[in-house]
């Protein structure tokens, strides 16, 4: 089953959910804030996408971090920050079961042949 990870009130996540629903793509939505973020899931995201791509440095959450928190980033430090504050994760993350895709742009999901992933 396809899973879309994000945050319920995020506009980009809303657009992604709407695109999946309009195309009748069966999926489940996992709210990273309400449903939680397990360390194993975050590790899977980091392994599949890279922590640099996953960490959203243009987010409000990032700007609210202290300079010390933002400095000297490593994979481990970034993972710790994302576990503590899931809104630091760029979203949405689409998990097709065989691949992870980050972000949303109109038409992108159409190119992924998602109907085959739900079949």
Secondary structure category: alpha+beta
The domain tally reads 1
Widest sheet: strand ordering: 2-1-3-4
Proportion of residues in extended strands: 5-15%
Please provide the ordered H/E string of secondary-structure elements.
EHEHHHHHEEH
The main sheet comes to: 4 strands, mixed
**Poorly predicted segments:** none
CATH superfamily: Glutaredoxin
How large is the count of helical segments? 7
Q: How many E strands?
A: 4
Question: Judging from the principal axes of the Cα atoms, what is the shape?
Answer: elongated
Radius of gyration: 14 Å
Provide the CATH top-level class: Alpha Beta
Mean pLDDT, rounded to whole units? 92
Q: What fold name goes in the CATH topology slot?
A: Glutaredoxin
Helix content: 40-55%
**What is the correct CATH architecture?**
3-Layer(aba) Sandwich
Summary, kept brief:
The protein has 119 residues and is of the alpha+beta class. The protein is 42% helix and 13% strand.
Structure description:
It is a single chain. The chain is of the alpha+beta class. It has a single domain (2-118), classed as 3-Layer(aba) Sandwich (Glutaredoxin), CATH 3.40.30.10. Helices cover 42% and strands 13% of the residues. It contains 7 helices and 4 strands; from the N terminus they run E-H-E-H-H-H-H-H-E-E-H. It has helices at 11-22, 39-49, 51-54, 60-63, 67-70, 75-84, 114-118; strands spanning 2-6, 27-31, 93-95, 100-102. Strands 2-1-3-4 form a 4-stranded mixed beta sheet, sandwiched between helices. Helix 1 (11-22) links the parallel strand 1 (2-6) and strand 2. The mean pLDDT is 92.
